[in-house]
Every structure is written in structure tokens, then in C-alpha cells.
Amino acid sequence: MSTFTIFLILIMIVAFLLVVVIMVQNPKGGGLSSSFGGGGGAQIGGVQKTSDFLDKSTWTLATIMLVLIMFSNVFIMGGRSLESKTFDQNAVPAVPTQQVPAQPATDNPE
């Protein structure tokens, strides 16, 4: 298994976890954090802790995904880099071919 394949599998796992964490959250204040009761400040480690955990895990998973994508970019070509022949001093310059203009077809042979 190549290194790129390993990175690709890790990226897919992190993407799945990121989707799960985002779907658990509710933008209007509901979601998993509201299902632990509505007691407000009387709850120890309740809604606020859950909301902080979901927020931190979203940012952490997004950061991990970004880093994995950047590292996988190095291994896409198996460690080989694509170099332009424009800046290569030993490259043979391409010689343009000359095209002969086409003669118009005549229907009237004289």
C-alpha cells in the first residue's frame, strides 16, 4: 500500500468524523448540547462543556484534515516532482513545423 493511499484513507476517516461532529451540532442552540437538559447554570459540566467539546473537536478535525491533505500532496506523484522544461537548460527546444498553405480546389480544369 502506497503512502498516498494511507493518507487518502486517513482523510476519509477524518472527513466522516467531521461530518458526524457537525451534524450533531445545531446552529440555533439545539443539538446534542441542548439534549442534556435546560437547567442552565445549575448543571455541572452540562451544556456548556458539551458545546465547548463539539466546537474544539470541529476545529481539531478540520486542522487535522488540512494537514493530511497538505502532506498527501507531496505523495501524489510518489515523491516525484513535476518540473517544467521551460527552465531546464538541457531541454531540446521544440522547433515549430512550417505548414504549407493548402491550394484551393478548382472545379474547372483548363
From TrEMBL:
Keywords, in A-Z order: Cell membrane, Membrane, Protein transport, Translocation, Transmembrane, Transmembrane helix, Transport
Membrane topology: Multi-pass membrane protein
Gene Ontology terms for molecular function: protein-transporting ATPase activity
InterPro entries according to UniProt: SecG (IPR004692)
Pfam families on file: SecG
GO cellular component: plasma membrane
Transmembrane segments: 7-25, 58-76
Single Gene Ontology BP annotation: protein transport by the Sec complex
Subcellular location: Cell membrane
Family per record: Belongs to the SecG family.
Physiological role: Involved in protein export. Participates in an early event of protein translocation.
Record's protein name: Protein-export membrane protein SecG
Protein species of origin: Aequorivita ciconiae
